[in-house]
Protein backbone atom coordinates (compact mmCIF):
# COMPACT_ATOMS: atom_id res chain seq x y z
CA UNK A 1 0.00 0.00 0.00
CA UNK A 2 1.07 3.56 -0.68
CA UNK A 3 -0.31 6.95 -1.66
CA UNK A 4 0.29 9.22 -4.61
CA UNK A 5 0.77 12.96 -4.07
CA UNK A 6 -2.31 14.15 -5.93
CA UNK A 7 -2.00 17.86 -5.11
CA UNK A 8 -0.15 20.46 -3.09
CA UNK A 9 -3.07 22.65 -2.06
CA UNK A 10 -3.30 26.22 -0.82
CA UNK A 11 -5.77 27.37 1.81
CA UNK A 12 -7.45 30.15 -0.18
CA UNK A 13 -9.95 32.89 0.61
CA UNK A 14 -10.54 33.34 -3.13
CA UNK A 15 -9.54 30.10 -4.87
CA UNK A 16 -10.29 31.32 -8.40
CA UNK A 17 -8.18 34.44 -8.09
CA UNK A 18 -5.29 32.65 -6.40
CA UNK A 19 -5.34 29.96 -9.09
CA UNK A 20 -5.27 32.68 -11.74
CA UNK A 21 -2.17 34.18 -10.10
CA UNK A 22 -0.24 30.89 -9.97
CA UNK A 23 -1.34 29.86 -13.44
CA UNK A 24 0.08 33.14 -14.73
CA UNK A 25 3.35 32.92 -12.82
CA UNK A 26 3.99 29.29 -13.72
CA UNK A 27 2.31 29.09 -17.12
CA UNK A 28 0.01 26.25 -16.00
CA UNK A 29 -3.32 24.97 -17.29
CA UNK A 30 -6.52 24.46 -15.29
CA UNK A 31 -7.55 20.90 -14.48
CA UNK A 32 -10.62 21.36 -12.27
CA UNK A 33 -12.46 18.30 -10.97
CA UNK A 34 -15.98 19.04 -9.78
CA UNK A 35 -15.81 21.95 -7.36
CA UNK A 36 -12.04 21.61 -6.86
CA UNK A 37 -9.92 24.35 -8.42
CA UNK A 38 -6.65 22.79 -9.60
CA UNK A 39 -3.76 23.37 -11.98
CA UNK A 40 -1.65 20.74 -13.71
CA UNK A 41 1.89 21.28 -12.42
CA UNK A 42 3.52 19.87 -15.55
CA UNK A 43 6.24 18.57 -13.23
CA UNK A 44 7.86 15.13 -13.36
CA UNK A 45 6.74 14.55 -9.76
CA UNK A 46 3.19 14.33 -11.14
CA UNK A 47 1.21 16.42 -8.65
CA UNK A 48 -1.27 19.27 -9.17
CA UNK A 49 -1.66 22.62 -7.46
CA UNK A 50 -4.93 22.84 -5.56
CA UNK A 51 -6.82 25.83 -4.17
CA UNK A 52 -9.23 24.95 -1.37
CA UNK A 53 -11.66 27.48 0.10
CA UNK A 54 -10.73 28.24 3.69
CA UNK A 55 -11.71 30.98 6.18
CA UNK A 56 -8.40 30.53 8.04
CA UNK A 57 -6.40 33.67 8.67
CA UNK A 58 -2.64 33.76 8.15
CA UNK A 59 -0.92 34.59 11.43
CA UNK A 60 2.72 33.74 10.72
CA UNK A 61 5.15 32.81 7.96
CA UNK A 62 4.13 29.74 5.98
CA UNK A 63 5.71 26.43 6.99
CA UNK A 64 5.62 25.36 3.32
CA UNK A 65 6.68 27.47 0.35
CA UNK A 66 7.76 26.97 -3.26
CA UNK A 67 11.27 27.61 -4.57
CA UNK A 68 11.12 28.54 -8.26
CA UNK A 69 14.24 27.99 -10.34
CA UNK A 70 15.98 30.19 -12.90
CA UNK A 71 18.31 29.30 -15.75
CA UNK A 72 19.78 32.82 -16.02
CA UNK A 73 19.72 36.17 -14.19
CA UNK A 74 17.39 37.45 -16.92
CA UNK A 75 14.93 34.62 -16.34
CA UNK A 76 14.99 35.25 -12.59
CA UNK A 77 14.20 38.92 -13.21
CA UNK A 78 11.43 38.00 -15.67
CA UNK A 79 9.79 35.64 -13.16
CA UNK A 80 9.91 38.29 -10.43
CA UNK A 81 8.49 40.96 -12.75
CA UNK A 82 5.70 38.65 -13.95
CA UNK A 83 4.73 37.76 -10.40
CA UNK A 84 4.68 41.42 -9.32
CA UNK A 85 2.53 42.33 -12.32
CA UNK A 86 0.05 39.60 -11.31
CA UNK A 87 -0.26 40.90 -7.75
CA UNK A 88 2.72 39.59 -5.77
CA UNK A 89 4.74 41.77 -3.42
CA UNK A 90 8.23 41.62 -1.99
CA UNK A 91 8.40 39.89 1.41
CA UNK A 92 10.85 40.02 4.29
CA UNK A 93 11.39 36.66 5.99
CA UNK A 94 14.74 37.58 7.49
CA UNK A 95 16.83 37.17 4.35
CA UNK A 96 20.05 39.17 4.04
CA UNK A 97 19.85 42.40 2.01
CA UNK A 98 22.31 41.01 -0.55
CA UNK A 99 20.61 37.60 -0.85
CA UNK A 100 20.79 36.11 -4.36
CA UNK A 101 17.26 34.73 -4.19
CA UNK A 102 14.16 36.95 -4.24
CA UNK A 103 11.41 36.43 -1.66
CA UNK A 104 7.87 37.31 -2.72
CA UNK A 105 4.37 36.76 -1.40
CA UNK A 106 1.34 35.93 -3.54
CA UNK A 107 -1.89 37.97 -3.31
CA UNK A 108 -2.98 36.04 -0.20
CA UNK A 109 0.38 36.38 1.54
CA UNK A 110 1.86 32.95 0.81
CA UNK A 111 5.63 33.37 0.60
CA UNK A 112 7.69 31.90 -2.23
CA UNK A 113 11.25 32.28 -3.49
CA UNK A 114 12.66 32.85 -6.95
CA UNK A 115 16.06 31.17 -6.79
CA UNK A 116 19.15 32.47 -8.54
CA UNK A 117 20.62 30.49 -11.47
CA UNK A 118 23.29 27.88 -10.78
CA UNK A 119 21.65 26.20 -7.78
CA UNK A 120 23.09 22.68 -8.05
CA UNK A 121 20.67 21.11 -5.55
CA UNK A 122 17.66 22.06 -7.70
CA UNK A 123 19.24 21.26 -11.07
CA UNK A 124 16.87 19.24 -13.23
CA UNK A 125 13.94 19.58 -10.81
CA UNK A 126 11.85 21.81 -13.11
CA UNK A 127 10.50 25.33 -12.66
CA UNK A 128 9.00 24.39 -9.29
CA UNK A 129 12.34 23.20 -7.99
CA UNK A 130 11.36 22.54 -4.40
CA UNK A 131 8.61 22.68 -1.87
CA UNK A 132 10.65 23.94 1.09
CA UNK A 133 9.09 22.96 4.42
CA UNK A 134 9.80 23.87 7.99
CA UNK A 135 9.91 20.54 9.78
CA UNK A 136 11.77 17.88 11.68
CA UNK A 137 13.95 15.05 10.46
CA UNK A 138 11.24 12.66 11.66
CA UNK A 139 8.62 14.24 9.41
CA UNK A 140 10.95 13.91 6.43
CA UNK A 141 11.25 10.20 7.19
CA UNK A 142 7.47 9.96 7.57
CA UNK A 143 6.78 11.47 4.15
CA UNK A 144 9.44 9.35 2.51
CA UNK A 145 7.61 6.25 3.72
CA UNK A 146 4.14 7.68 3.10
CA UNK A 147 4.81 8.53 -0.54
CA UNK A 148 7.48 5.96 -1.36
CA UNK A 149 9.83 8.79 -2.36
CA UNK A 150 13.47 8.08 -1.48
CA UNK A 151 15.56 10.39 0.65
CA UNK A 152 17.93 12.45 -1.48
CA UNK A 153 19.34 14.44 1.45
CA UNK A 154 19.70 13.52 5.13
CA UNK A 155 22.27 15.59 6.98
CA UNK A 156 22.37 17.75 10.13
CA UNK A 157 18.66 17.00 10.74
CA UNK A 158 17.77 18.40 7.30
CA UNK A 159 16.03 16.01 4.91
CA UNK A 160 14.75 16.00 1.34
CA UNK A 161 12.81 13.52 -0.76
CA UNK A 162 12.12 13.29 -4.48
CA UNK A 163 9.80 11.21 -6.60
CA UNK A 164 11.47 8.27 -8.38
CA UNK A 165 10.33 10.06 -11.55
CA UNK A 166 12.30 13.17 -10.63
CA UNK A 167 10.85 16.67 -10.47
CA UNK A 168 10.16 18.85 -7.44
CA UNK A 169 12.08 18.01 -4.27
CA UNK A 170 10.35 18.31 -0.90
CA UNK A 171 12.73 19.53 1.79
CA UNK A 172 12.60 19.97 5.58
CA UNK A 173 14.94 22.33 7.37
CA UNK A 174 15.09 20.71 10.81
CA UNK A 175 14.37 22.24 14.24
CA UNK A 176 13.18 24.49 15.70
CA UNK A 177 9.66 24.22 14.30
CA UNK A 178 7.95 27.48 13.37
CA UNK A 179 4.49 28.21 14.81
CA UNK A 180 1.39 27.11 12.95
CA UNK A 181 0.65 29.93 10.46
CA UNK A 182 -3.09 29.19 10.48
CA UNK A 183 -3.26 29.36 6.66
CA UNK A 184 -0.78 27.35 4.64
CA UNK A 185 -0.19 24.70 1.97
CA UNK A 186 -1.18 21.07 2.46
CA UNK A 187 -0.77 17.67 0.82
CA UNK A 188 -3.70 15.86 -0.82
CA UNK A 189 -3.01 12.14 -1.23
CA UNK A 190 -4.76 9.50 -3.32
CA UNK A 191 -4.39 5.89 -2.14
CA UNK A 192 -3.27 3.26 -4.61
CA UNK A 193 -5.99 0.94 -3.33
CA UNK A 194 -8.36 0.96 -0.35
CA UNK A 195 -8.68 4.33 1.38
CA UNK A 196 -9.28 2.97 4.88
CA UNK A 197 -6.39 0.54 4.66
CA UNK A 198 -4.11 3.36 3.55
CA UNK A 199 -5.32 5.56 6.41
CA UNK A 200 -4.43 2.79 8.85
CA UNK A 201 -0.98 2.46 7.28
CA UNK A 202 -0.35 6.19 7.62
CA UNK A 203 -1.49 6.09 11.25
CA UNK A 204 0.98 3.26 11.88
CA UNK A 205 3.74 5.47 10.44
CA UNK A 206 3.00 8.24 12.92
CA UNK A 207 0.08 10.24 11.49
CA UNK A 208 -2.80 11.33 13.73
CA UNK A 209 -6.49 11.30 12.89
CA UNK A 210 -8.33 14.63 12.88
CA UNK A 211 -12.00 15.48 12.41
CA UNK A 212 -12.89 13.67 9.18
CA UNK A 213 -15.87 15.96 8.62
CA UNK A 214 -13.40 18.73 7.84
CA UNK A 215 -11.84 16.70 5.03
CA UNK A 216 -14.84 17.03 2.71
CA UNK A 217 -15.92 14.91 -0.26
CA UNK A 218 -15.20 11.67 1.54
CA UNK A 219 -11.61 12.68 2.32
CA UNK A 220 -10.03 11.64 5.62
CA UNK A 221 -8.19 14.40 7.44
CA UNK A 222 -4.92 13.48 9.17
CA UNK A 223 -1.91 15.29 10.60
CA UNK A 224 1.72 14.30 10.09
CA UNK A 225 4.13 13.94 13.07
CA UNK A 226 4.77 17.71 13.07
CA UNK A 227 1.05 18.48 13.18
CA UNK A 228 0.62 19.56 9.55
CA UNK A 229 -2.83 18.68 8.22
CA UNK A 230 -3.19 16.58 5.06
CA UNK A 231 -6.03 14.76 3.32
CA UNK A 232 -6.38 11.22 2.06
CA UNK A 233 -8.85 11.43 -0.80
CA UNK A 234 -11.03 8.70 -2.22
CA UNK A 235 -9.56 6.86 -5.20
CA UNK A 236 -9.80 8.79 -8.48
UniProtKB/TrEMBL annotation:
InterPro entries: Glyas_Bleomycin-R_OHBP_Dase, Glyoxalase_6, VOC_core. This is VOC family protein. Residues 124-235 form the VOC domain. CDD domains: VOC. SUPFAM superfamilies: Glyoxalase/Bleomycin resistance protein/Dihydroxybiphenyl dioxygenase (SSF54593).
